[in-house]
TrEMBL record:
It comes from the Bacteria. This is Autoinducer 2 import system permease protein LsrC. It is a multi-pass membrane protein. GO terms for cellular component: plasma membrane. The keyword rRNA processing does not apply. Keywords: Cell inner membrane, Cell membrane, Membrane, Transmembrane, Transmembrane helix, Transport. The gene is rbsC. One of its GO terms (molecular function) is transmembrane transporter activity. It is found in: Cell membrane. InterPro entries: ABC_transp_permease. It comes from Mediterraneibacter butyricigenes.
Length: 315
């Protein structure tokens, strides 16, 4: 029987690394390991983990990446802020906009990657520029105004006890995503294509359609994350989602997921997001700024890639 929640060596490694970072931070920075600081880390890591789900879906089917997710979220947030104007009454419209924009962008990405055989890096980079252009034109003409619905603000910033609501939401997403990816035909098909595309095709799977659907799902999820970002920040602004793109890819790598496809352990990916955010918090506490943060994350990525390659060679 397939294990739903698979805890392997990579899971233990990620958890151990988080503990190590908190041990270092706890003895070197006052208040770094306090419950409040940990909850804040988890809150920020949640958004990386959610964007990383987008990356996991497209990586699973054959090592693709989706660079457009950040600006999909931004465009949805900018449009939704003006529609919502601080009211719950129009929330359904904002949700439809998120699904529509994310779905259309994902569909275009998927068609170009699956049917035109273009590299996902090139396709999604180009789509990023297109969506960014739309955001800039719209913002210049209409401005970036409005406010999130109170429901979104509650989800993003409310708490149950000391635990932010957004963390509870992530836990639900982890459970649902893990069940789908590990226990359903959807997950089996996605991983089959990533493991061996030719074998999957010979078994009757429509490889192109399934890969396209993975990009559509990535876009839709990114659109919905845009609503959460709007609720978290209280307003929309240009580039609000772009800073999550590289960390979301990094979370997949740090989580130990194969970049060649065929793997879909979202628990490890979420832990990878927590590793990155803990590392970021530590660098900020040391006063190293963005330069130090990205240098550190880059070093971690290189180390993970080296370990990944060595593991493959040893096999």
């Amino acid at each position: 029987m397939t294990k739903i929640f698979e805890f392997n060596k990579k899971t233990v490694t990620a958890l151990a690394f988080i503990v190590l970072l908190y041990f270092i931070g706890g003895i070197s920075v006052s208040g770094f390991a306090s419950p409040h600081a940990m909850m804040q880390m988890l809150k920020f890591a949640t958004y990386i983990a959610l964007f990383a789900l987008c990356q996991l879906l497209v990586t699973c089917t054959g090592g693709d990446i989706d660079l457009s997710v950040g600006y999909v979220a931004t465009l949805v947030a900018v449009l939704s802020a003006q529609i919502l104007k601080g009211s719950n009454a129009q929330l359904w419209k904002a949700v439809l906009i998120a699904i529509a924009i994310g779905g259309v962008v994902g569909l275009i990405n998927g068609l170009l990657v699956s049917y035109a055989k273009l590299p996902s890096l090139v396709v999604t980079m180009g789509m990023t520029s297109v969506v960014q252009g739309i955001v800039n034109v719209y913002s210049s003409k209409y401005g970036v105004t409005g406010a999130p619905a109170p429901i979104l603000a509650t989800i993003a910033n409310g708490k149950v006890g000391i635990v932010p609501n957004i963390i509870w939401l992530l836990l639900v997403v982890i459970v649902v995503a893990t069940v789908i990816l590990q226990m359903t035909k959807i997950g089996v098909k996605l991983k089959s294509i990533g493991s061996n595309e030719l074998a999957a095709f010979r078994c009757g799977l429509n490889v192109k359609v399934i890969r396209t659907c993975a990009f559509v799902a990535s876009g839709v999820i990114a659109g919905l994350i845009g609503l959460l970002l709007l609720g978290n920040l209280g307003q929309a602004f240009k580039d609000m989602g772009s800073s999550y793109v590289m960390p979301s890819i990094a979370a997949v790598v740090v989580g130990g997921v194969s970049l060649k496809g065929g793997e879909a352990n979202y628990i490890n990916v979420a832990l990878g997001a927590m590793v990155l955010q803990t590392l970021t918090n530590l660098f900020v506490a040391y006063g190293w700024g963005d330069a130090g943060k990205w240098t550190g994350i880059g070093i971690i990525l290189l180390l993970m890639l080296i370990l990944y390659v060595r593991e493959k060679v040893s096999r």
